[in-house]
C-alpha cells in the first residue's frame, strides 16, 4: 500500500488548523488504498522518509525561512534520500505573518535537489486561516494522496 508522509511543524493554532485540514483531505473517504502517516518535523526519521511514496510538508515561515524543525528533518536525511526518492510527489503548506518567499524558495531548492515532483500548488496563509485557506489545505492533502492511489 502506498504511504503518504505528512511532515509538519505546527507551533501555533493557525499552523495546527492547517495541518488538521491537510490530514482530513489526505484521509477523506474517497482516498482509498493510501496509508497516511504524520510525523512532527523534529521526530521524523530518514527511514520514515525513505519508506514514504509521497510527502506533504508544512511549516511556519520564520523570519522569511522554513522552520528550523523542517530544515533539520532535511539536514538529517538529505543524502540518504538523494538517489532513492527521485520522482516522488510532494505538496507544501506555509503559514506566515510576513513574507514567505524565502521559505518557498528553500523548499523548492531542497525538493529540486531531491528530484521530487510538485503534485499540487503550494498553500500560503498569512495570519488567521480563512475558510478558503482551510479548504485549500484540505485540497492539498487530498490531491497529494490521490496521486498515490494508482
TrEMBL record:
- Protein name listed in UniProt: Flavodoxin
Mark the transmembrane ranges: none
One Pfam family here = FMN_red
Q: Which InterPro entries match?
A: Flavoprotein-like_sf, FMN_Rdtase-like_dom
The NADPH-dependent FMN reductase-like domain, residue ranges: 48-125
Domain of life per record: Bacteria
SUPFAM superfamilies, per database record: Flavoproteins
